[in-house]
Design goal:
This protein has 369 residues and is of the alpha/beta class. The protein has two domains: 3-39 and 267-336 and 343-364, D-Maltodextrin-Binding Protein, domain 2; 51-262, Fructose-1,6-Bisphosphatase, subunit A, domain 1 (Fructose-1,6-Bisphosphatase, Chain A, domain 1, 2-Layer Sandwich), CATH 3.30.540.10. The chain has helices at 51-65, 72-76, 85-106, 134-149, 209-217, 286-296, 314-324, 337-349; strands spanning 13-15, 152-157, 164-165, 172-180, 191-199, 226-232, 236-241, 246-252, 257-262, 273-275, 307-308, 327-329. The structure holds 1,6-di-O-phosphono-beta-D-fructofuranose. 1,6-di-O-phosphono-beta-D-fructofuranose binds at residues 180-181, 183, 277, 312-314, 317, 330, 332, 334.
Length: 369
């Protein structure tokens, strides 16, 4: 890991390093990677949004300025981001699934289900009447929504061993972690759903379902059409990007609508918070130890001492970093490129930040398995 290349006074950052992969382990969808989120100033001009994209953003902003409250459904339509009918329908089904998961997590009845911390449940070897974990129930909710949408060809989920082929004519590929952070659910710590959306690769249509499901799910993050997360916390937030800005919607429980509350999020140029599991300090490479030591003593170019915040729930730690700035990272080997790092990197890049493994742009890493 090359943390020596990080500035000693980083702007806002998210990091998950690859060199902590077990030796010889392939870089794959199940591989952890470092992610760095830095301000737009750190991008070369060529990596900045194109003029066409900037024009689309300006007209979208004008549309938002001219109106009051805007719901997600309105935002998706012709007067808003105008994402196209297929994508609008898909996202409508996904947001419904997220609302069902939010309700499930908050329900007193979910003790009949089992938190992911509750041991080995819901596995295929269990009996039919065994309780399922909330992860598995969330996975089922998402799959059924995608089937109902008619717009998904494949769902690749962190919960499934293999991607599930849904429909030959579904235009979109969905990669998803249905319930991240669920280890903490029994103590009501925030959790989240993370997803990415790709176009179906029509050139693979002739292949057997299993093969085309795999290959469609292994697209590079650069090909993402959209990405998002739902944060299940004191408020339920749905944060989305369709490639022109990153926007967050808050669930209004009185109407059941997601309302646009954070249009065009810009990650602050500089934050004062670092977020990492400090207990692993002695496992970190020395570059990372030096970097954290420097910022927490206020010895970088930015003279203030950074504070630590670590919820141990990726969506919650990421969301705080997106809004307040700073750096969030996981230098261990258990966050996934396909389901977690790619969608979050897409979101942070469209908010003016950066996702890195310490030396490489996350979105440029080709998943291999
Ligand atoms: O134990 P660590 O290294 O602090 O990891 C915590 C991270 O693991 C996660 O719980 C994800 O783990 P899973 O992918 O196994 O659900 C994240 O939400 C969190 O950021």
């Amino acid at each position: 890991m090359q943390f020596s290349c990080l500035p000693s006074n980083p702007k806002s950052i998210v990091v998950f390093p690859p060199s902590l992969r077990p030796l010889g382990a392939p870089q794959s969808s199940s591989t952890a990677i470092p992610v760095t989120v830095v301000s737009l100033a750190h991008f070369p001009a060529t990596a900045r949004p194109s003029l066409t994209c900037q024009r689309a953003v300006r007209s979208e902003m004008a549309a938002i300025d001219g109106e009051g409250t805007r719901t997600l459904i309105e935002y998706l339509g012709k007067g808003g981001a105008n994402v196209g009918d297929d994508l609008a329908i898909l996202v409508t089904h996904l947001q419904y699934a997220c609302k069902r998961i939010a309700a499930l997590i908050a329900s007193p009845l979910n003790s009949n289900i089992v938190g992911a911390g509750g041991g080995d449940v819901g596995s295929s070897s269990s009996g039919r009447d065994d309780p399922k974990s909330l992860d598995i129930v969330s996975n089922d909710i998402i799959l059924s929504s995608l089937r109902n949408s008619g717009k998904a060809c494949v769902m690749a989920s962190e919960e499934d061993d293999f991607p599930v082929w849904i429909a030959d004519d579904g235009p979109f590929v969905i990669v998803i972690d249905p319930l991240d952070g669920s280890r903490n659910i029994d103590v009501s710590i925030p959790t989240g759903t993370i997803f990415g959306i790709y176009n179906r690769l029509v050139e693979l249509d002739h292949l057997p379902a299993e093969e085309k499901a795999q290959l469609n799910a292994l697209q590079s993050g650069r090909r993402l059409v959209a990405a998002g997360y739902a944060l299940y916390s004191s408020a339920t937030i749905l944060c989305l990007s369709f490639g022109s800005g990153t926007h967050a919607f808050t669930l209004d429980h009185s109407t059941g609508d997601f309302v646009l509350t954070h249009p065009f999020i810009r990650i602050p140029h500089r934050g004062q918070i670092y977020s990492v599991n400090d207990a692993r300090y002695f496992d970190w490479p020395c570059g990372l130890r030096q970097y954290i030591d420097t910022i927490r003593q206020g010895k970088g170019k930015f003279p203030k001492k950074y504070s630590a915040r670590y919820i141990c729930s990726l969506v919650a730690d990421f969301h705080r970093t997106l809004i307040y700035g700073g750096i969030v990272m996981n230098p261990r080997d258990h966050l996934r490129l396909v389901y977690e790092a790619n969608p979050l990197s897409f979101l942070v890049e469209h908010a003016g930040g950066k996702g890195s493994d310490g030396k490489t742009r996350i979105l440029s890493i080709q998943p291999v398995g």
